[in-house]
Design goal:
The complex is a heterodimer of chains A (about 280) and B (about 260). Chain A has about 280 residues and is α/β, with parallel strands linked by helices. Chain A folds into 2 domains: about 5-235, Rossmann fold; about 245-280, no CATH class. Helix content of chain A is about 40%, strand content about 20%. In chain A, α3 packs across α4 (about 115-130) and α5 (about 145-155) packs parallel to α6. Chain A starts with 6 loop residues before the first strand and ends with a helix. Chain B is mainly alpha-helical and about 260 residues long. Helix content of chain B is about 70%, strand content about 5%. Chain B is built from 10 helices and 2 strands. In chain B, a hairpin with a 2-residue loop joins β1 (about 95) and β2. The longest helix of chain B is centred in the last third of the chain and has 32 residues, at about 195-225. The radius of gyration of chain B is 24 Å and the shape is flat. The chains are: A alpha/beta (about 280), B mainly alpha (about 260). The interface of A and B includes residues 86, 90 and 97 of A. Chain A: It comes from Salinibacillus xinjiangensis.
Chain lengths: ~280, ~260
């Protein structure tokens, strides 16, 4: 039977060494299999700490974290890392191999995948992120977005059940951001995989099934993207900006033009606007 | 980056030398370098020179490119020649310039040392010209593998080498960026007395080091997240296999060595 929760945090508290404040204060939440969850919050809200706790890069002082009902501890840590792949913020500082193919192979080598399987997995995962033409390219000849796609391919090659994007688009230009988001979308259509995106860019939240808003080490709110954006003023109070579309519809509302339903994307907004007269 | 120095630069190609097993190349060059110092007459030198030239031609890299690339070394070769001309006092006096005698032995000695030097540089640069740095790393890991028994960290060393190679261009770009940033703040790297210019390097090095350490920390975390747990239980994607061509080259090289040994006086 498939477990109901893929990852479960129970009352998790974490404190960085040499720091008086708790980065997380008794956080509980879960992530279901095949779910896309966005964790948002401003700097220092504890969202990146959550990512590092999920695959055992940090371990909590209090509380437990279960991955597939398996607690994370020293014995299970390497199995967990095989199941939970992670893409970090800086495209350069996670590129280990001298070429694209070597970088994808690095993770496979670590997990002791036999050589015969490697070639197949590498070409499959590079294809999934549309980087198959760059097999022998060196990292300094790739753009930031391309490097992040290679990082995703490296994670995919290990065939994880959960992919964490820890601010993976923060250092990219808008084009690179879109390409990463589309890549993740595409990957999810081809295989069963949960995704956790950690971000302070609320535009990325739109893709998610569910959003967890973090504030000062606590879970501040949990809900669908639409529910989150309805809390517009409160979000701004904790230092988060809502996307352009939400802001525009709020301003329209103030002017007495109320839209049928709260739009989330540009397309939603456009549809709402051009049908405004007929649906009234 | 200076393009005139070719030592350490890889030229992509598909020549027989390019395809040779890197371990074989390293082994042959290692032996060759030792053997150069055992040559003691013109026949043995000719054999070694012929072998070096044959190797050079087989790389299918334009000889003019290789010679041009060795430019900085030419100066050293000529310098050694002149040094021997002045210092050595053997054989007959050939010419006397301004009370200064040049001996016939000095010319021979100078030529000999210069030739040795030239062959040495030529052969070692052929290695780096025809082998990617990562193949060299793989070869070193494979050749040093037996040292694992005495707990020499072969795998870690090889990984360190490959990561350094991977980060050279990244750090170069970073240096360029920082030097531009500092220049725009008024730091002058190009003019002024040497002392001032050395001082100007400090604001370049400090940020570079800080960022290198930050990179190292993040890289370590990324590697751990991707399941890196030391050399044990790791499989290898790149595999070195000796091919028939490698054996032919080895046999040929052994024949050359035998010929060389017989010709020695």
């Amino acid at each position: 039977m498939e477990p109901r929760h893929y990852i479960e945090f129970q009352d998790v508290s974490f404190q960085y060494p040499n720091s008086e404040d708790w980065a997380l204060k008794g956080v509980s939440f879960h992530i279901k299999p095949n779910e896309w969850v966005a964790i948002i919050g401003h700097n220092g809200s504890g969202k990146s700490t959550i990512a590092k706790l999920m695959n055992g890069l940090l371990s909590p002082q209090q509380g437990t974290i279960h991955v597939q009902e398996l607690p994370i501890n020293q014995e299970t840590i390497w199995d967990v890392r095989k199941k939970v792949g992670m893409v970090f913020q800086n495209p350069d500082n996670q590129f280990v191999g001298t070429t694209v193919i070597d970088d994808v192979a690095f993770g496979l080598e670590n997990h002791g995948i036999p050589r015969e399987d490697m070639q197949k997995r590498i070409s499959y995962s590079l294809k999934a992120v549309n980087m198959e033409e760059y097999v022998n390219h060196e990292p300094h000849n790739l753009s930031g977005g391309q490097k992040q796609r290679v990082a995703i391919a490296s994670v995919l090659a290990v065939e994880p059940e959960l992919i964490i994007l820890d601010e993976a688009t923060a250092m990219l230009d808008p084009k690179g951001r879109n390409s990463i988001m589309n890549t993740v979308h595409q990957v999810r259509q081809d295989r069963d995989v949960s995704v956790v995106t950690i971000t302070h860019d609320l535009n990325e939240v739109l893709f998610a099934d569910r959003v967890i808003v973090m504030n000062e080490g606590n879970v501040w709110f949990e809900g669908t993207p639409r529910e989150v954006f309805q809390k517009h003023d409160e979000l701004q109070a904790i230092g988060l900006d809502t996307p352009f579309v939400t802001q525009l519809s709020r301003h329209l509302n103030k002017l007495g033009i109320s839209l049928h339903k709260e739009p989330l994307t540009h397309k939603d907004l456009m549809d709402e606007l051009w049908t405004l007269h007929s649906t009234r | 980056m200076s393009n005139s120095v070719i030592i350490g630069q890889y030229v992509p190609g598909h020549s027989p030398i390019h395809r040779l097993d890197p371990r074989m190349k390293i082994a042959i060059i290692f032996i060759f370098v030792i053997v150069i110092f055992l040559a003691n007459n013109w026949v043995s030198y000719s054999i070694l020179t012929a072998f070096a030239l044959l190797s050079t031609i087989s790389t299918r890299i334009a000889p003019s490119f290789i010679l041009k690339g060795l430019k900085p070394v030419w100066f050293l070769i000529i310098f050694t020649f002149i040094l021997h001309l002045v210092v050595t006092k053997e054989g007959d006096v050939l010419i006397s310039v301004l009370n200064f005698d040049i001996y016939s032995g000095a010319i021979w000695k100078g030529l000999e040392i210069s030739l040795r030097f030239f062959l040495l540089i030529l052969m070692t640069s052929l290695l780096t010209l025809t082998t990617t740095p990562i193949s060299i790393t793989d070869a070193i890991e494979s050749l040093f593998h037996p040292l694992n028994k005495i707990r020499f960290p072969v795998h870690e060393l090889a990984l360190m080498m490959s990561i350094s190679l991977r980060f050279i261009p990244t750090l170069m770009q970073e240096t360029d960026k920082i030097s531009k940033a500092q220049a725009s703040r008024g730091v002058d790297f190009r003019t002024g007395p040497i002392k001032e210019r050395i001082k100007a390097v400090v604001p370049l090095l400090v940020p570079l080091f800080v960022s290198a350490f930050k990179r190292a920390e993040e890289l370590a975390m990324a590697m751990e997240a991707r399941g890196y747990n030391g050399g044990e239980g790791r499989t290898k994607f790149r595999e070195l296999k000796l091919k028939k061509a490698d054996l032919f080259v080895l046999i040929f090289f052994i024949l050359v060595l035998i010929g060389f040994w017989i010709s020695r006086s």
